[in-house]
TrEMBL record:
Keyword set, alphabetical order: Membrane, Transmembrane, Transmembrane helix
Keyword Methyltransferase: no
Domain YdbS-like PH: 70-143, 411-486
Pfam annotation, one family: bPH_2
Protein name: YdbS-like PH domain-containing protein
InterPro entries linked: UCP026631 (IPR014529), YdbS-like_PH (IPR005182)
Amino acid sequence: MTTSEVAWQRLDRRTVIVNTLNAAGVCVVAGVPTGIGVGGATSPRLALAIIVPAALLIVGVVALADHLRWHKTRYRVLTDRVELHKGILVRSRRSLSRERIRSVDLTANLLLRFFGLVTVKIGTGEQTGTGTSLALYPVSKAEGERLRTELLDRTPSGTGDGRRNGVLAAIDLGWVRFAPMSFVTPTLGVAAFGAVLQVAEWFGLQEGVITWTIDRMRDLPLVAAILVLVVIGMVVGVIGATGLFVEMWWQYRLEREPGGTLRVRRGLLTSRSISLEERRLRGVELVEPLGNRLVGAARVDAVATGLAKQKESEKTDHKTLLPSAPRHVADRVAAEVLREDVSPTSAVRLRPHPVAARGRRIRWGLACVAAVVAPLLVLGWLLSVEVLLHLAWICAVVLVPVAVVLAIDAYRNLGHGLTGDYLVARSGTVRRGTVALQRRGVIGWTARQSIFQRRKGLLTLTATTAAGTGAYSVHDVGESDGLAFAESAVPDLFGPFLERG
């Protein structure tokens, strides 16, 4: 079939209804506090007279604009490329080579799911440049699945061991217990207090809320009052973190499809389908945040070429293959993803680093404590504020032991090794990461030494790769051991610069 014979397709016509309902919802959410601020309790009719016509006008404009957008948007899939034409005032014509397509992700929020629609994002996986992705918003769910299957079919490239196809992992409700064991919990607790004060301000009740809280805490000692607020914040944070985990990972399934694609499906209110070509996979990273590590949990991230960095607003990385789960489950999934009998992250005994690396971490930890305590001491002395001086020594007494313990733990977590086709490196304490990177995925080595590292005979090796974050480091390794490791992992990269005795 020639190019001229391939028919153009349109987006689903129900996009006009969806966007009109979205605009109406935004008007309601924004209109209530605005109406209260404009008219308040004294003149609600004035508020309605201003807000309602404005909301109707906005909804009407959105409906008309989206109808024109639908009418002017069309796409088609050819044998060698995908084309998208769109635009009202400014026409845009985009084309992606099918050979460069690396991902077709399907996303649907609650409203789209109600109408049986999905948003399709077709990407090349490149992190720079324009024209690297196409978005079809929205199409029917069946059309989205058809596009995903057709554009990602890599059957000729081989599928490996067929016994490893199918479902590799599925959600276990017991994993929910790991959700509160993260820094998200206290963050949500603090955010909840801020949200209460913000809503109270909309209704002119902020001062009353603060006064009511102080009255309830008046009879309690200061320490007890602080503990009560901390407990309330932590309870709210636990509930919020649990709810966030459920929304993100509900109905989670990790599957390997016969065409050579790993597919992650998840989501409660917003469903997500994320696909990753196996030929782009260069390894995995076992991530163990401190809270999860204390309860024996870890998550698995993919180290793959072409995984574009997520925006700050997108906290759910496309690279996550397994959420926080028991460590033995993470090891099993990592092995299945890499088609290995045992995960490289646990198959090798990592070599420890010199004791000098421990001293460096202790000094860093104490320097961080000094950065907190010193300003309090200086301000307390200059301003003659006794409270700041007391706060300084309290912080020192509390933070110094914590800093030393974390520093020692960070040193114990350092390690590197080789197993089969993979080099393995581990580091971190608050976030411990163990990366298993294919040797053929390393395109260069960087050896870096600060003046302090040179005095101790240490260096930091960084493996440069086109996959994942682009660079993975072996921190504070001994000079001779590190250079030998780099040469053994990828021969001839460092070879010309080494003196052999």
